[in-house]
Write a structure and sequence with these properties.
Layout lengths: L3 E4 L9 H16 L3 E6 L9 H14 L5 E5 L4 H14 L2 E4 L3 H13 L28 E4 L6 E6 L3 E6 L7 E3 L7 H11 L4 E5 L6 H14 L7 E5 L2 E2 L15 H6 L4 H9 L13 H7 L10 E2 L2 H14 L2 H14 L10 H8 L6 H8 L10 H7 L5 H11 L6 H14 L4 H13 L7 H8 L1 H12 L1
Helix pairs in contact: 1-9, 5-6, 8-10, 11-12, 11-13, 15-16, 15-19, 16-17, 16-18
Length: about 475
Amino acid sequence: MTVRTRFAPSPTGFLHIGGARTALFSWAFAKKHAGQFILRIEDTDVARSTPEAVQAILDGMHWLGLDYDEGPFYQMQRMDRYKQVIQTMLDAGSAYYCYSSKEELDALREQQMANKQKPRYDGKWRPEAGKVLPDVPQDIQPAIRFKNPQAGVVVWDDLVKGRIEIANAELDDLIIARADGTPTYNFCVVVDDSDMGITQVIRGDDHVNNTPRQINMLMALAAIDANIKVPQYAHLSMILGSDGQKLSKRHGAVSVMQYDDDGYLPEAVLNYLARLGWSHGDDEIFSMQQFAEWFDLDHITPSAAQFNTEKLNWINAHYIKQADNAYLVADITKRLAKLNIAVSDQPNLSSVIDLYKERINTLNELAANIAYFYQKPVIDEVASEKHLTADIKPVIASLVESLQSIDWQAELIHQAINDVVTQYQLKFPKVAMPLRVMLTGIAQSPSIDQVMALLGKDEVLARIKSAMN
């Protein structure tokens, strides 16, 4: 049987990090088994679903490079199919009309809660052999309920959590079509998974309570059509923040596209997500091709994973170091443009990036750190007070005289600084630090001779002159 997995987000918000991990694991399982990965948009919640959220999901999938073999399919475009299946179930006796009004159901729920009972439908309109149903009211549009088995248990061997058993007595007859005729979430999922031939459902463990209901409906459909099979299920544990609390915006529970905005590479985000609750020995860094080859569900931990921004930054820094400079030049040019900084031919941006790419964690850091090459820096007041002292100015003036007459190469610039250091019997940082402040605005930078070589003689001398005045 061909493996077919699916990612089925609801477009009620952006694609967040938990959804992206679910999509990644479903994608990898399909790739590992030479199967198909399907994207399905579950947009039946009309009040909360938006076109913007749909686009955010598609953009996030595209940015991550999670290519799908089929889709995107939209549930709202499948309404006729759902109604057809509901009629089939009504005809087979596995679904029935329920005329209980909202007021009746609310009163029933209140009474059950007052009696400290689990709120559930009382089966008033459930047809049974020998049971006489009430007269059909004329003023109520009926909902349609699934006739859930009342005895026995629902059992499945979860591919992550192990064997799970739920007694049917714990489940009531859920509504599969509302009074206005619109089908409900659990029913649509069942029809979709059945029609699309899904073999493994990999999803978050917030769906565990839905699974026994869906299995029972699939078995009811299989009794009508022997070709219908119940898929295997794998429920992924939730992702917690580094403090063990539910993931929130301060932990990283933001749109996947926010990671792009914040300067992360998609390869780094994918690599990090792959290790979030799954492992392959001690391997930390690997390509998506390797991940697809290695991936299995046996090595997914059933306990909650913890999101760690420091670890993500470490992985991102690795991928930036390995990244092709042509890619980085294009990316950083755009990021500098957002800071209203235009990149000129000199200094060469690729060379500037080489100077910094080993020192930063994100592309935003890279852009911010190299901005001074393309615009006059604002000198930090604290750094100026500390390093641009009256006694250092004669030293810098002597250095300027030497710099004016040398070929502009890092080695010769370094030698000129050394000569002045020796002449005034100073330590190298005593001269290098003021130079950094004058040229970059701050007291930290890569080797000052390399910075000066890239800035160019005219620019260096102009900035020193401006800072000395």
